[in-house]
Amino acid sequence: MSDSDDEYDPAEIAVPAPAPTPAVEAAAEKAGPLCRADLFSISASHAAESTLASGLSPAASRNAAAQDAHRDESIDDNYRLLSGIKGRIRCLALNPAGTTLCAGSEDGQLCMWDFNVPLKSHRVAPTRVLTPFVNRISGLQPIIALTFAKDGSFFVACQDGDSPALVRASGEQLGYCAMGERGLLDVVQCRGHRAPVTCAAAHHRDAAVFLTGGQDGTVRLWNHNTFTHRSVYAIKHGSGQLTDTHVVESVTTLQHFRSGQADIFASGGQDGCVQLWDSRVKYRPGGALATVDMFAAASNGNKRVEADVFAEKHVGGLLEMQAASPSSPAASPPDHSLAVRVGSVIKTIDLRKLSSSLGASASAVVQEVASGLPFALDTTCLVLGGRDLSSMLTCTSRAGYQNVTGGHVVQYTYRGGVPPCDRTMIWRAGKPEEDVLCVCADRSRPDGCVYGGLSSGEVVVRNAFTTGKDPQPIEAWLQTRPKREWRDRAPGEKARRADDDAQLLAGLF
């Protein structure tokens, strides 16, 4: 990173492209045209020869060959998964083991990459493509939210409709959540959502429980065993009055609030407020444990900054954060906060102060920790970027970051104190015309991959290839790609006849 805080040079964080190799130069002099497949073979063979000559291990040689073989599918030296999706990728989810990646798009496709299933052809394609939400009138419905259960046994997919679907990790669809009743009925007493679902979250402790929020202003808890009948618990965000309905835009559970002794979850609504709820307490209107207005007027020294009453109030991603562990065992307990993405900034709510005084004002518990993050959607995600709760990832639109165009993924480490967050990674994941709309990370290993969903319908992967003995799951998966037999034929030798048309077509890709 450069010394200036206003601009950075992407060349400083990207691996420079290698110089043309003798094998490639020799191939360029051939009489026939050089196709992309030839580049794969030449670059891979040259990488293997150079690494063996330098004394590297066979595992390191395979890694280097894989990196060179896929270099032309990357930007800033990152691998791209071609999904075949026509619309924007709105959500990503990775199972806890880091072996199954799911992507939901606006064209209604749900792509699954199972890195434990070997590739059947040379073409890298999703392991499964599901279309769980089909409407007779409008066709496939956009998939706008995905979340994996704590144990990775199933995941929840939410459409632009009122009924989420549960899908096993193997791709089998389990069913739809209960539909909400229509008519004059208390929205909290309905079986399911009465309006489109907007967000979903897995429970931090119970793998069978998950939460959803919707445009009907409710947050609902569901159980894996009864989700087709009704939700097990529901609250209405805001005041709870019949005429006061605010869209719920984000929801999350709090694992360490009050030492984890209560089942607390947080909801963020289009009223600009974040509310905390206890699922063990029977719901009553206005019965939130605490309400924090993220757009409340703030004070700046002796001057008072007035809030804009005409501004749209969207509350994006919610993420529970815990400051990095202190170096001294005798140090005070680490700070505990709730990070909130609000437009182009990230703010934190001090949960320690809020726990001791539930009626604390917003100015006493809210602090801005990051800014300058352009956004393409009203709500932008915040996800954990490591094994602990101190690392978070977020993304930007094609407007870029610090005067560098193209969608970015930015990582922060929460340490508390002043400043509370340190920027630890800047990754230009998209081209100048691409937005990064969602992001997820492999938390099962210290050097886990980071995945970004692009407006072009592709998934870009950072750190897909390693130089160590333990390959990334996606790297090991790519190494299972079968070799094209026609490349080993001698000049003039006829190709072996395919057994059927399907095998012949598979060999073409």
UniProtKB/TrEMBL annotation:
Q: What is this protein called?
A: Uncharacterized protein
One Gene Ontology CC term in the entry = ribonucleoprotein complex
Q: Name one Pfam family in it.
A: WD40
Highest taxon of source: Eukaryota
Q: Which Gene3D superfamilies match?
A: YVTN repeat-like/Quinoprotein amine dehydrogenase
Among InterPro entries, the record links this protein to:
WD40/YVTN_repeat-like_dom_sf, WD40_PAC1, WD40_repeat_CS, WD40_repeat_dom_sf, WD40_rpt, WD_repeat_GAD-1
Keywords in alphabetical order, please. Repeat, Ribonucleoprotein, Ribosomal protein, WD repeat
Q: Does the keyword Repeat apply?
A: yes
Enumerate composition-biased segments (Low complexity): 11-25
The scientific name of the source species is: Leptomonas seymouri
Positions of region (Disordered): 1-25
Sequence ranges of the WD repeats: 82-116, 190-223
> Is the keyword Ribonucleoprotein assigned to this protein?
yes
For bias kind Acidic residues, which ranges apply? 1-10
